[in-house]
UniProtKB/TrEMBL annotation:
Protein name per the record: (Fe-S)-binding protein
PANTHER family linked: LACTATE UTILIZATION PROTEIN A, UNCHARACTERIZED PROTEIN YKGE
Coiled coil: none
Domain (Cysteine-rich): residue spans on this chain: 3-83, 132-216
Domain of life: Bacteria
């Protein structure tokens, strides 16, 4: 299966290890993974702040770059939701661009969706002997409706103890530009999330979006809690040999 990795801006710039983990995991499961070097931002920030024309241009570029692949996989529920939910609204009905978007968007998957819905696996052979709790990011929960896909994968990781997070479905307060425009509210929401995480006694906080992990992780770090943040892909890529 010919798969393209859509890495996203945040991961490419700040969390390259997540992209490497996705490639390692998918290759372990028999996928032929490409990284189209011409990929750019999906346009989410532009559209969310009113720059529709820039979003249209970036959507057009995205469809050109990723056309021809069997699947496009991304370690971001947020960016996957942008492509699947917003791209069809950006294109002019009946246009060439609308047709290209309609053809591509059904093949764009968040990582856990691809593993469970396409590859039909919920045990990827991972080993991670730690106490972990999972935060459901807003776009993955309410946009993509990932439901229990990420936790099903975590439950099958050998050595991992998955503990429930109270209020896991509540926003962490990041919300992209929301955290910039409303810093006090964002910080308060992050503090609430941090308290819930500490109550679990977990060593590691896991999520499907590094943007949210960055926000929560900042609070965890400033409070010197000792709790690490890790993207779902990095845990799933871990093996006993690598420990």
């Amino acid at each position: 299966m010919r798969v393209a990795l859509f890495i996203t801006c945040v991961n490419d710039t700040l969390f390259p290890g997540t992209g490497k983990a996705v490639v390692s995991l998918l290759r372990r499961l028999g996928c032929d993974v490409d990284f189209p070097a011409a990929q750019t931002c999906c346009g989410q920030m532009h559209v969310n702040t009113g720059y529709r024309e820039e979003g249209v241009r970036l959507a057009r570029h995205f469809t050109e770059v990723f056309a021809g692949y069997d699947a496009v996989v991304t370690p971001s529920g947020s960016c996957a939701a942008m492509v699947r939910e917003q791209y069809p609204k950006l294109a002019k009905p009946g246009s060439k661009g609308a047709k290209a978007i309609a053809e591509l968007t059904p093949r764009v998957y968040e990582l856990s969706e691809f593993l469970i819905d396409v590859l039909k696996v919920d045990d990827v052979g991972a080993y991670f002997p730690h106490r972990v709790t999972y935060h459901s990011t807003c776009h993955s929960l309410r946009g993509l409706r990932l439901a229990d896909r990420p936790t099903r994968l975590l439950q099958n990781v050998r050595g991992l103890e998955l503990v429930p997070l109270q209020g896991a479905e509540e926003c962490c307060g990041f919300g992209g530009t929301f955290s910039v425009k409303n810093p006090s509210v964002s910080a308060a929401m992050g503090a609430d999330k941090t308290r819930s995480i500490l109550d679990t006694g977990a060593e590691v906080l896991c999520a499907a979006d590094n943007s949210c992990l960055m926000h929560i992780g900042g609070t965890l770090s400033r409070q010197k809690t000792g709790v690490r943040t890790m993207h779902l892909a990095e845990i799933l890529a871990a093996t006993e040999e690598a420990q």
